[in-house]
Amino acid sequence: METRNWLKIYREIERDFGFSRRKEIVARDMLSELLGSRFVTENELGDLIKKEVYVVGNSPSLESEVHLIPSDGFVIAADDAAVVLYKNGIVPDIVLTDLDGDIGAMLAMPERVIFGIHAHGDNLHLLHYVKKFRRRFGTTQIEPLWNVYNFGGFTDGDRCVFLAYHFGAKIHLIGFDFENPRIKTGKNVALKKKKLYWANRLINMLKDEGACIIQESLNL
After folding, report:
1. How confident is the model at residue 61 (pLDDT cuts 50, 70, 90)?
2. Cα dist. 130→31, 38, 63, 73, 146 in Å?
């Protein structure tokens, strides 16, 4: 999806959730400063991402679906889905996170894992962790910068799908359940379900645009 088209969609998301554009800008600029010149470039990502990708979400059924990922599958995982995979013997290739997951577990993963760190208005207090990640790149939901990308996407899960689609990959969905989310302690259930509504809607937009997305998840 072209950036200009995504930005129109994100305006609608901003209105729906009441997000502050000012805070989004502050977060993006802070992430850019923290990344500096040490980040995985878009060209490097393009060389790395294979033509067939397993995108893994963190639904409650993920543990029972891990076997659907082939041993040689290229894996892009959403936040704590990466932790579940690692505990089950699978090292993800790329992890997209807004840093509200198990950061310690992510930092303990092998050095080859690349982390896409997302900045938004609600995670300003977590962005200092960026410097702890060895191989990393930055993402934003608004206008990109030279070292902060916008491949599209809203939640960690659908951002993984947008990333894979950006590089022309055939996408297999694992661990996606838009009706029965895994809720973290202290999180707002209604807000989570609203975000998953948007995630589902955005993934369907990509399908309409021509993305090859195969729903391997047992709950779809």
Report:
1. confident
2. 8, 11, 28, 27, 17
